Amino acid sequence: MNVLKFRHILTNGQNFLFSSKESNEEYYGVAYELTKKLFIGIAKRVMVFNCSKYNFYDPPFVFGERQLDSLIMPELAFLCKGLAIAEYPVNRNSRKKGFEIKNSKGRTDYWCIYKDYSFVIEVKHSYDYFETKYTGKTVVDRWKKADRQLIEVKDDIRKFAENTEGVIRLGLHFIISCSRINPSESVREDYVSKEKDMLRRLYEELRPAPNFMSVWELNKDEIYYDDRAYPGVILAAKFFKDIKHKGLKY
Questions:
Q1: CA 94 to CA 145: how far, in whole Å?
Q2: pTM exceeding 0.85
Q3: 116 vs 51, which has greater pLDDT?
């Protein structure tokens, strides 16, 4: 994705900007489809928390990574026809200086099967103060951590016994766009006008570079929470090439 290309889509009354595909390889197409459908489904589920019946609006993405599970897990289970597990046990190995570990018991955020591929998924959550021109250290560090965690499980993944086409490691970083306190009434319009520049900034600063990026542009009546505005959610994703594992289909 050396040159970012995006297209708008409107679905379920919500606006999205999606990066175009950068590969024709099968694993990439399957990962792209799952990530896109997952993001759209999550946005739809958020609207349940905009509840006029009980007079509240508590979008889970505002709070943190753990609260995202209330959106991700049910949508994964729906897309994968029930074949999804949260906190899936794995062994981690790393030879990287400063991070050396061997056969450490751990967990990956999600495991699932979609379109005959197994997926191992790591999720991160952070905030991006879009009215500045700078990317926060937390955004960069959490992206790097997800990448490192997915590298560390590579050896264990080779032992997976399910009879699928391969195992795809998928890093998902939900970056919540946040305004300063007491935002202006034009904050959504300002955000939309800047979103491609924000995506380019993030693409240039996140390393390794994402191979999928998207923005969910919230509607104007959905962006305000407490004394700030959250006009959009950015999803940066990293698709690792599929690993041929013990249970591989022949």
A1: 13
A2: yes
A3: 116
